[in-house]
Model the fold of this input.
Amino acid sequence: MHFDLLVKGGIAVTPMGTGPADIGVREGRIVAVGAPASATAATVIDARGLHVLPGLIDPHVHLREPGGDGVESIETGTKGAVLGGLVCVFDMPNTNPSITSVERVDWKRGHIAGRAWCDMGFYVGAAKSNISALAELETQASVCGVKVFAGSSTGDLLVEDDASLEAVMRSGTRRISYHSEDEYRLQARKKLFKSGDPYASHAEWRDAETAFLGTRRLMAIARKTNRPAHILHVSTAEEFLYLQDYRDLCTVEVLVNHLTQVAPEAYETLGAYAVMNPPIRDRRHFDAAWEAVRNGTVDTIGSDHAPHSREAKARPWPDTAAGLTGVQTLVPVMLDHVNAGRLSLERLVDLLGAGPARVYGLLRKGRLAAGYDGDLTLVDMGARRTITNAAMASPCGWTPFDGLQVQGWPVATVVRGRMVMHEDEVLGTPTGRPALFAGTRAG
Ligand SMILES: [Zn+2]
Done:
């Protein structure tokens, strides 16, 4: 038996179980899970001492192109992704200009050629001006879904009122992804604070009720319209419990930050570099997020990689830019959580592989199985490393996890049969492609 690529000697995490299995890849696809010892290949990767995972996916990144390539671009953001063990990222639409039309989706799909190091899916943004076009927009090739900002964050996309949200839900059929914070409560509470207040004020302003109220409103309309929903970055104990009653309609994302950082300590240590939306919250919510990972409420984990310049972060609160980098550190930080006993490696694969595939209808990825793309993430669960600003591929040059010591590290990333990262170095040239989704047209 001869393959293009043979990954030999590793412990594979597959739907059939976790154990020793050599993986054979031919013409970019997995063709053998448990290849015979006699198998040969053009390229052999020695995976002894490593775990072989299906290629991991970050379904929530902001790569800032067009309009923000000084802090991040398709090229640098996907370089960070493969250095961090990811084979595919889904890129958010709140760029400048926003991705809100067929022309702009086409532009982005074409733009990644020769620039992206990993495969990509694209969100289209909902705006009050394009609601009737969303049904058509969500079927465009490589679109992972519609993104709705029901509460304001970075960029100019906002659909905050119930009538407009209902109109969005009645335009199209695929699962919609929401930034859920109640815009009216956000605006009303702004006057309780003043410029220069401590960065920890961010979590008081955008309090738990702001997120919970947003989610209650969205679920009421989703129930009325029977439109599938995905609540991004769920961050409160109340929402995790509440959403258990909506599992017929709604899937749940949690961010690595909300599983790793706690208020008030994060604000005391990091200042503006802890400011993101929804905010880092106190231990009660942190514990609830982990309980939701353990009890199965959570479907996907994202980084919400959202780079800003140091200048933009340095501004006093509330003018500091909200958002943190994370695409390159998502897998290392989560592997450290695995080593700490907070979740199993199988659950990590569920959350960063099978989960995104199930929620978004991503095809041929997220599963170490015959016929799937030859996407693999090889990890060394024993490796001890320190995350540093200097190692970040992002031009913004910082990570909120600078100085964090972790155990567990991605040592190779394979995209469709080609090793694109090995031992912290990217290899070859960018050959990332648009990803495929159920319910979209061919590219
Ligand atoms: Zn985001």
User: Anything to note?
Assistant: Residues 56-360 form a domain with the TIM Barrel fold (CATH 3.20.20.140). The longest strand covers residues 376-386.
